[in-house]
Every structure is written in C-alpha cells, then in structure tokens.
Amino acid sequence: MPKNSKAVKRELDDDVTESVRDLLSNEDTCDDSFKKSSLIVGGAGGDGEGKDLNGDMDVEDGGSDAEDDAARPAWNSKLQYILAQVGFSVGLGNVWRFPYLCQKNGGGAYLVPYLILLIVIGIPLFFLELSVGQRIRRGSIGVWNYISPRLGGIGFASCVVCFFVALYYNVIIGWSLFYFSQSFQQPLPWHECPLVKNKTTTYVVPECEKSSATTYYWYREALNISDSISESGGLNWRMTICLLAAWSMVCLAMIKGIQSSGKVMYFSSLFPYVVLICFLVRALLLKGSVDGIRHMFTPKLEIMLEAKVWREAATQVFFALGLGFGGVIAFSSYNKRDNNCHFDAVLVSFINFFTSVLATLVVFAVLGFKANIMNGKCVALNTKKIVGLLGNEISRDLIPHHINLSATVSAEDYQQMTEIIRGVTEKDYHLGSCSIEEELNKAVQGTGLAFIAFTEAMTHFPASPFWSVMFFLMLVNLGLGSMFGTIEGIITPLVDTFKVRKEFLTVGVCLLAFFIGLLFVQRSGNYWVAMFDDYSATLPLLIVVILENVAVAWVYGTDKFFEDLKDMLGFTPFRFYYYMWKYVTPLLLILLLGSSVIQLGMTPPSYSAWIKDLANEKSLSYPPWGLVVCISLVVMAIMPVPVVFFLRYFNIIDENAGVVSTISYKKGCIIQEIARPEEEDDASLIHAKSPSPMPGNSIYRKQNGGVPDSAPNGRYGIGYLMADMPDMPESDL
After folding, report:
1. Quick check: 641 and 153 in contact, CB under 8 A?
2. What pTM, to 2 d.p., does this model score?
3. Which residues are recorded as binding Na(+) 1 (predicted)?
4. What phi, psi does 340 have (nearest 5°)?
C-alpha cells in the first residue's frame, strides 16, 4: 500500500463528508426532485405491529417544528388551541343537560359520581385522543388507519357520526338565531298569550290558554309544529332562513381551516362565560334565586347507590368531552409534537366540569326566581278562592289574625292557613299546595329548558329584551364552538386522506348538510331532531371509542404507546393511565354500551308529540318506517368499521396500503402520499428512494442532540430518515 494511501483516503472521506453536508444544508437550492422525493415506509404487517408512532414523524428533529409548520397549518398560540378545545367540549349540553341530570339524580350528590367517572373515563380517553392526534398529525381516518389498517374504519365511522350530529345540531343554532332576532322587542313576543278579535268578542287563543305563553310561542309561532312525525306539514320558511344563516356562519368560519376558525374562537369560546357570570350575578339579586340553588345542591345521598345514576353520569362525561367525534384528534393534529397534551387534557376536562357547575348555578338561580313568581301567582289565585268561601263554607275564625287577606299573602302564611282549614273542615276545596319545591321539581331539559322555562323566567327580568338577546347569543356561540370541532372532525380526515382543497370540501359539506337539513325545518322537524339525537350518535360513538381504546392499548400496545409519549412529552405519564387504558376504561365502556343497549331494548322507540287540540305533549310510537330510519342511523354510522376490516382481511384492499406508503418530505417535513413505483437501482439512495419494502423494514431517525439511535442492523441514521438496508456495504452509503 502506498505510504500516502491514508492521506488519499482521508481526502476522499472529506470530500464525501463535505458533499453530504452541502447536500443537506443546501436543500432549498436543490432541484424539485430532491425537494420532494419519496421514501418507502416498511412495516411488519397489516396489523400495525413492528412500527411506532415515530414512523410518520419528524424527518429531522432539529428544527422540525418550524419546518413542519410550513407544511401543515398550526395554531397561532397555545391559548387559541385551548379555546378551540374548550369551545368544542363546552356546548349546549352543559347548559341544558347537566343541570337536569344534577336535579334528577340527587342534586349535589350527583357531582360525586360525575367527578369520579370524569377522572376514570373522561380524562384518560381525552388524553389518548389528544396524544394520537398530536403524534401522528393526521385526522381520525389517518390516525386509526396508521395504528391498525384493519381498524381504519374507526375514522370513517367518526366522520359519519360527525355528519349526522352536524345535521341537527346546526338546526338548534338556527332556532337560537330565530329567538335572538325576535328578542329586540319590548315586551318580548312570548310575554303573554295573543288575543283573537272578532266582531263581538276578544278572547285568548285556546291553545295558549291551556298551556302557557312561552310554550305556545315555541310550538306554534316558532316551530308551527305538526301533530306527528308522519305529518310533514311543508317547510317552515322562517326556520329555513335561520338554518341557511347558521350554515353560512359555519362555512365562513371554517373555510380556511384553523386559520379562520381559530380567530373566531376568541369570541365564541369566551363570550358564553361572560354571559353566564352576568346571569349569575343578576339572578342572585332576584327574589327566590337562593331557594333554587339550595334545592339544587341539597344532596340526596341514597340516590347515589342506584346504577342508573352512574350510567347517566358516565354517558354525560362521555359526550361532554366530545370523545369519538374526531374533533379532538383533528384539533390536536395541528399542534407541535412537543406540546404537553397531558396538561391540556386535564385543563380542558376540568374547565368543562366547572363550566357545567357554573351553568347549573345560573339555571337554578333563574328557575328559583321563576318558581317564586309561579308560587306567588298560585297563592294569589287560591287566596281569592278562600275569600269567596268565607262566611259560607269556611269560618272567618279559621283565618289567623295576623293574615290580611286583602293584602298580599306570603307563601308561609298561605301554608299555615290551608293547613288549618283542611284540618278543621276535613275538606280540600281544590286548593293547591303552592309549594316552591314542587315548582322546582318540575324537571326540564333540552329545548324545554332553553326555549320555554328560561324564556318565561326572563320575561319577569327588568330589561328583559337585553337579557334575552344575551342568552340566545350565548346559545349561538356555544353551538358554534361545538360545530367548529364537529366540522373539523369531518374536513381534516378527508383532506389528509384524499388531498382535496379544504375550501372546496368545506363549501361542499356545508351545502350538502344544508339541503339534507331541510328535513329538520319542516313542521315535523322537531321530531326528526329528537330521532337523530337519540339514535345517530349514542351507540355508534360508544362503539367507536371502545375500538379506539382497544386499538391503542391492545393492538398497538400500551407499552409502546408509553414510549412514544415519553419521546413526545419528555416525561413518562403517570402509571395510572397504563392501567386505565389497558383494563379499566375498556371494561367500563363495554358495561356502558351493554346497559345502553338494554335500555333501548326495554324502552320501545317513541317521541314526544305536541297535540294542538290538547295543548299538551303526548308520547307516540314511531311508525314502522320511523323504526327503520332509527335502526338505519345506527347501522350506517357503525358500518364503516366491519366493511374496512373485511376488505383488509380478505385483501380486497391491499392491507399494506395503510402501512407501506410513500412519504414525501419538503423543507424537513414528511407528508404521506400515494405510493409510486420507482426504479430500484443504486442511484435510488442518492434520491432518498429505497428499494421495494421488505418484511421487518422500519424507519429510524436521529434524536435531538447526542448519539443517534442505532438502526435495527446496528448502523446509525444520517439525519434524514432512510430505510434500513440489510447487508448493504457501508461503502455504498
């Protein structure tokens, strides 16, 4: 060997080192073939084993966050992201569902099972969805297809459920917009029953006289409802316009993705809290509000032992956080990969809980005020009856001397007076009990709370139009915040999967949803809303979340997932989550699913219909075609899961399509694309193209600082991801 051979070798090595360094450092000046080159990601099999969540991650960890932001939209700030998640999770259910459940299931005692189940089910599953979205940086379709191609139908099922929910949820926003538009009047249009005038007399509309002014306005003026779901009655043109306005708002806010909706979140997420606090302060200054709050938080501990209470608490936790919709995954996919999503999960979950408690305080403070007014009217009416009976059937001596029947009689004096009369005469005289407790026990929820009970209470507020405007504007904002997350759960997975323009897809989805949504603005539309609310989401979402849990904990592997979380977060999450994900939450979710199925089986499908002649609600069974629609909603929502599984299992769709895929990187970011066959030659390495994938091949990457990870064959990565090449001579590199 020549004595200068070492020098020659050193010069050659230096040239190679310099050429590689120049190649990597001057990527932006290279031609397009280098800027966007393909890389085959090898996997061990279709079930997702043999790969980890790093496989579709950073191309070059150093500066990857800044480079990745150029390829995928990102939140402008952490606050914007938190507001988006809060806006999605805090919705109409916090205002009109949680207070009802609290009252129905033991008052303050209901908060105990709710809080326990929030910690055991809610936070672990919320953390799981945030983690997979942030790590894989895809929507629900891409995430679950990546973890296990055979379970790829989970993402499609989430999209279908999101679409079903969006159809009727935006109708509720339309109703709120209608009431908002009608609130700029003094007095409010639902303040009193309308009068009918003819040539000789003036009388109150019978339907209103039999019910109440707010009930009549809701069913007849706003909805103009038919007597059953079979009577469509044609379109309600006013609600059609409101629905168009609601979808226009959603479309304009979502058309640019998080760049446009993120800015709207500052108002739509924060404004409801301003209104709730204002309502609470105002309600506490009204007579009777303390009675409502006392009634609310008086614990009935014996009810806590009932299984139904725990089931309803678990269901409320499940839906309050928006689990299974895909919106949580979509929002978190726009995060930086080193974001502390565990902190986010805990923070958003407890914000949601305290929002529910705040809304409950407001609702029962206002309902306490309303109950006090209703009780006063009851006392006044029955006092007139007693005055009419004095001297004939009731002796004046039975009336306590301190009670002045010619003045306003208090509720306490009325109770004392009626007890004496009933005790001495042993007759009832059809005198009502006039109890505030009985008024408060008339549990209402949903539209009955928002559009009837609450609106009636506001008519007694000083400056009632102002409070009505604030209340319905709050409902609109609560609804929009949830709608943004729901639509993002549809748009993001489809854009990631099919590479369509987000603007065109958003407009298309909103137009399609509006035209299908015309079903809900018929005169029978309220019954369709109830049907979709009962059957389109509950069972399908439970199944989706169970499969999500199983996919991560048992298919992908809890241990492997913990390693990914440690790499992403910089610390190992509490061992508590390991046992929750692997054992506790799947078991509890299966029990919840079983109890929900049993409940549906024991209660035949029915709906509450407003009967005009009776001026009252009546429970009716769905017609045969209605039962078919109910079943079809459940089947259509969950059908993608078995369809994709069998297509993958029988290789009708190549099972490797979800595992071995072409990855393009541009400016240091990798973006999944459709695989394209390339010539397999030695030059492919220079262009970052690997030969045909081989079983067991995997991607490895250089870690931040220090010594890079060892590849499976004992070699080291060189900065950019490269496929492992078994038995390849070192000189070929």
Report:
1. yes
2. 0.78
3. 87, 90, 94, 478, 482
4. -80, 85
- 349, amino acid identity: S
Q: How many CB atoms lie within 10 A of CB 402?
A: 7
For tokens 């051979």, name the residue: 5
> What are the start-end ranges of the E strands in 641-724?
662-666, 669-673, 699-700, 722-723
Contact residues for 195 (Cβ-Cβ < 8 A; gap 6+): 202, 203, 204, 205
Q: Is 733 annotated as a binding residue?
A: no
- Would you give the end-to-end CA distance of the chain in angstroms? 24
Question: By the 8 A CB rule, do 255 and 487 touch?
Answer: no
600 among the known binding-site residues? no
* Residues 6 or more apart in contact with residue 379 via CB below 8 angstroms: 409, 410, 411, 414, 434
In terms of residues, how long is the chain?
733
Kindly list the structural domains of the chain, giving each domain's residue range(s) and its CATH number in brackets, ordered by start: 78-374+446-657 (1.20.1740.10), 378-441 (no CATH)
According to the annotation, is 482 in a ligand binding site? Answer: yes
Q: Are 533 and 607 in contact (CB under 8 A)?
A: no
Rounded Cα gap, residues 459 and 638, in angstroms: 44
Question: Running DSSP on this structure, what letter comes out for residue 182?
Answer: T
187 cis-preceded (ω within 30 degrees of 0): yes
What is the phi-psi region of residue 416: left when phi exceeds 0, alpha when psi lies from -120 to 50, beta otherwise? alpha
Check the annotation: does 301 bind a ligand: no
Place of tokens 């009777």: 288
What is the Cα–Cα distance from 455 to 92, expressed in whole angstroms?
16
For residue range 496-520, list pLDDT tens digits in order.
888 888 899 999 999 999 999 999 9
Quick one: which H or E segment has residue 611? Answer: strand 606-611
Q: Which two tokens stand for residue 570?
A: 């910089």
Indicate the burial class of 411 (C-beta count within 10 angstroms; 0-12, 13-18, 19 or more).
middle
Question: 56: closest CA among 637, 664, 469, 623?
Answer: 664
Distance CA 401, CA 390 (A): 14
- Contact in structure between 689 and 39 (CB atoms under 8 Å): yes
Instruction: Tell whether residue 570 is among the known ligand binding residues.
Output: no
Single-letter amino acid, residue 655: E
Q: pLDDT tens, 388-400?
A: 777 777 777 777 7
CA distance 68 to 421: 81
> Would you state the structure tokens that stand for residue 82, as one six-digit string?
């938190």
- pLDDT tens-digit profile of 40-96? 333 333 444 445 565 444 433 334 444 444 567 888 889 999 999 999 999 998 888
